[in-house]
Amino acid sequence: xxxxxxxxxxxxxxxxxxxxxxxxxxxxxxxxxxxxxxxxxxxxxxxxxxxxxxxxxxxxxxxxxxxxxxxxxxxxxxxxxxxxxxxxxxxxxxxxxxxxxxxxxxxxxxxxxxxxxxxxxxxxxxxxxxxxxxxxxxxxxxxxxxxxxxxxxxxxxxxxxxxxxxxxxxxxxxxxxxxx
Length: 180
Known about the structure:
The chain is mainly α. The chain has 5 helices and 4 strands, in the order E-E-H-H-E-H-E-H-H. Helix 2 (about 20-45) packs parallel to helix 3.
């Protein structure tokens, strides 16, 4: 159906990944990601047994209050998450939260365990929709990559503020690990 009509495959967007084929597909993807991350960490332990393994989660993209996503950030003309409908944003956030949980579980379940940096939890007030406080640039917001008026969009990657916030959390975890 119409991509803006609120339906995917004849069902409301919000239900597609919650049941049926969409849920089965998503569950399989998360299972694969978890297995691959555990395998990666196990291989790292095998080849570098004295290494301190750290797995870094993803920052939060969508705020709890999705109304924040209905206005462009200061100095921008596009909505932070472009044309993703507001009713789909909680679904996107739930998927991202689940990815973070799968990543954290892989760190815990890996042979010998690994440390985890939970950026999702620590970046809830710096999402793509947090105006001047955003740590994630908007999907179509121009980055600093390119030139001659041909700047590439950020595509919801960390901006300078987000880079610094995330780097601080990773540095804090590294310091904690080294001081054990």
